[in-house]
Design a protein that fits this description.
5 helices; alpha+beta; single chain; 8 strands; three-stranded antiparallel sheet; about 220 residues; Peptide Deformylase; five-stranded antiparallel sheet
Amino acid sequence: MFDHNAKIDIGLNRAVEQLMKTAGEDHILPIVHAGVPILRRRAVRYHGQLSANTLSKLIDMMHTTMVEAPGVGLAAPQIGLGFAFAVVEDHLRDDDEDPREIAEFPFHAIINPVYEPVGVETRSFYEGCLSVPGFQAVRQRWLNITARWQDEKGHQHEERLHGWPARIFQHETDHLSGELYIDRAEIRSLSTDENLEDYWAEDPVPTAAAEELGFAI
């Protein structure tokens, strides 16, 4: 649970309410892009600085913004807020043989998330980021993790995640430490979305891209 003795930060709460007003009638918040300092700062642990109503509205708007982008995750720093929370959601595709092991990942907020690897297996796939629009690169990540987080009520959760949901959780949690996926990506794999579609999208495993572009997987 969040600290019941913590006081709501009135000034901060008001600032967040003002930010949400910029979303307009469509409830879509502006996403900040690489180069904005807040993306490189460690997020502050959330312990109840916002009112329950403001937090609930913010989570809903982040969800709407993520879906519209479109994306499968959105961290608070990506909308200019330096708090340690994010929203995530992904759904099954038609291809059951997809080597990325995409699985149903229901929508939820992850507050103060952390993870640790389970085992030593990793996988390398192309991934992108809403704060680095128009590009994707190959990033190695843990195949299995233990994920821990709090929900908007402050209740603690722990779950073992595998495959693509594990990648999403790692990506969004890394945002909260000031990291972008490109920091540890195979930089020679960097591709525009259009070139990825034209050259490398046929096989999700980037074997051909690694050979042609000159990087290791």
